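2024-03-11 09:14:02 DEBUG pipeline.ingest accepted 1 chain
2024-03-11 09:14:02 DEBUG pipeline.ingest length=394
2024-03-11 09:14:03 DEBUG pipeline.predict start
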Amino acid sequence: MFDLTAVQAAVRGAGCDGWLLYDFRGQNVLAQRVAGLAEKKLSRRWFYFVPASGEPRKLAHAIEPAALDHLPGAAKTVYRRWQELEAGVGGLVAGAKRVAMEYSPRNANPYIGRVDAGTVELVKSFGCEVVGSGDLIQQFEATWDADQEKSHFEAAKHCRDAYDVAFAFIADEIRARGKVVESAVQARILKHFADTGMTTYSPPIVGVGPHSGDPHFDTNPATDLPVERGSFVLIDLWAKMNRPRAVYADYTRVAFVGDRVPEPYAKVFAVVAAARDAGIRRVKDAFAAGRPLTGAEVDDATREVIEKAGYGDKFPHRTGHNIGQEVHGNGAHVDGLETREDRHLIRRTCFSIEPGIYLPEFGARSEVDVYVDANGTVHVTGGEPQAGVHRITV
């Protein structure tokens, strides 16, 4: 349900005169969700302007005149011609100087930039400064309610259990047959998800040796490598409870098949774990002190550890991503590398911290989920973060 009081308070808090929500055929899923239109298949452009105070204003096409009727505000303009649309947009933003939209200057953060350049030009033509709605949008799209929070902790437990299932399966198969292929381990994890009432948009990553050195390795039978005695294996898995509005859990762990982890694996993983812990610390310290914190700051904290250890060029991706109904959610990411992430990490949102070091022979990544609850308490979910490379004894 659209909470006009909360939205207008957020608009004022952002220092804006209004927030202009706009979409055309699902290009702006963020605006769709905030406006409660994600389930509707609208075919024409619509605009909804929420001023910092006063009555919201609507602009809809004559074919879909009732598209915005469920939203607060009686003032509605219905257009047919493109000239009427342009004039209608001018009427929506009349008197506003600073207007928020799903826009990112220079496309510095494409996760926010959902409004096309031409529409931004149109709004600017009426004397408005268009600013990004990044911190606004996540307050109404990325925050979790109590049911979603519960679903995450439920999924987190099942995901943590998936590692015990996978490692035990690997051990049993090696004892019985001498080896097991990557895709068979993947299939066993997917069975565990189904058995525990979970779903996922794509299968987990199971990567052995050099495959673990590919951050987005695609596990499939065509490229299968065996997991056997002496193998180093990385498993990255993500899933959510199979019910409406559930949110994801997402973790990565690594293991070695044998009694003693070789020094190269242990050394690299120790750096990754230290970087992960530095990121977690930065989050906990900021929320304990009540200090605003951007995703880029946490990325900097983790990346600094890896760079000081001499592996900076072997860590080619952002530190983490927002987590929601999609595994890569629509709130602030933990990123100062790939994008200019100046959105703030806020309460009732969840994000991953997952630094990695990727070498030709193997790669190590350690991923945890961090959830900040309504009180500002920081939870690291999915069990204790992995302290060292797990040993699978056979």
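2024-03-11 09:14:41 DEBUG pipeline.report Residues 352 and 369 are 4 Å apart (CA to CA).
2024-03-11 09:14:41 DEBUG pipeline.predict end
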